[in-house]
Amino acid sequence: MNAAAGGGRARAVGDRAVAALGDDGHDVRRLTADSGPAMEAALRRAVAQDAADAVVVVGGDGSLHLAVNALAQTGVPLGIVAAGTGNDVARCLGLPHDDPDAAIALLVEAFDAGDDEPIPTRSIDAVRVSTGRWFVGMLSAGFDAAVNERANRMTRLSGTPRYVVAVLLELARLHARRYRVTTDRDTRRLDAVLVTVGNTASIGGGMRLAPDARVDDGLLDVLVATPLSRVQLLRLFPKVFRGTHVNDDHVSFERGRVITIDVDDRGPAPVTYADGERFGPLPVTLQVVPGALRIVVPAPVPSTP
């Protein structure tokens, strides 16, 4: 659990999750740490010792990101109690994203179903990055990454309002870069202000940048927005929440299994973000790995005779 997630609200949520699972007869081991890397290392050790029948993450997409990197391709089921600010992964998976107690109840029911049968799970894709890291949501490499960088420095707002304010503040620095985007074996060189690769559909608490992205289709959706003025971007921005920006002449999409992003101009390499976490500068290569994660889902409803 990340006690700081959701403005500190996740601590109480984590306590309720531990109590609910313990009261239901499960042996619960609470993992806490002073930093993200320490938390991930503790989780890796627990999984390596075969100590976990399942892992439950209490926090936001950043906390989930740590678990994804510890659990990818291990087969250990991952339960999600969304208690952060954006919770986009839970949202895109159709899991409770704004009601932590509903998420806890779902897990209690799912683990009860697993007493006599395997825990009910859904296999989803994850994305392996050339840096050695994994992510499950979206990777941003343009204006959207700059917005994420700005939003992470803002502490007085949370959720969607924080990202909206960050967008408005970053508009003053809006400028296009010369990108080189390779989708599988097809390379495009183009000027763009926005480059996003989606395994899931939304970012920033419900901004549907890649509305047709699916977490189990073995493909990544690549969004590119060609140069826009500040006024044009402001007009486009509200459409992102409905996913109708896909019809704009400045926006294009393509799909692939392996994506490489780099820049051809002389400016400093843009920073990249994925699952709300800083990944470092371009270039990066992304490869979707089908079925890399098992997500705990609601227990099946028993059939009536």
Brief synopsis:
Helix content is 30%, strand content 28%. The chain is α+β, with helices and mostly antiparallel strands and 305 residues long.
List descriptors:
eight-stranded mixed sheet, 305 residues, alpha+beta, Rossmann fold, 14 strands, Tumour Suppressor Smad4, six-stranded antiparallel sheet, globular
Task: Walk me through this protein's architecture.
The protein has about 300 residues and is of the alpha+beta class. It folds into 2 domains: about 5-120, Probable inorganic polyphosphate/atp-NAD kinase, domain 1 (Rossmann fold); about 135-290, Sandwich (Tumour Suppressor Smad4), CATH 2.60.200.40. The protein contains 8 helices and 14 strands. It has helices at about 10-25, 35-50, 60-70, 90, 100-115, 145-150, 160-170, 230-240, and strands at about 55-60, 75-80, 120-130, 135, 140, 175-185, 185-190, 195-200, 220-225, 250-255, 260-265, 270-275, 275-280, 285-295. The strands form 2 sheets. Strands 1, 2, 3, 4, 6, 7, 11 and 14 form an 8-stranded mixed beta sheet that branches. Helix 1 runs parallel beside helix 5 (about 100-115), helix 2 (about 35-50) runs parallel beside helix 3 (about 60-70) and helix 6 crosses helix 7. The radius of gyration is 19 Å and the shape is globular. The N and C termini lie far apart (about 40 Å). The model has no long low-confidence stretch (mean pLDDT about 90). GO terms for molecular function: kinase activity. It comes from Amnibacterium soli. This is Diacylglycerol kinase.
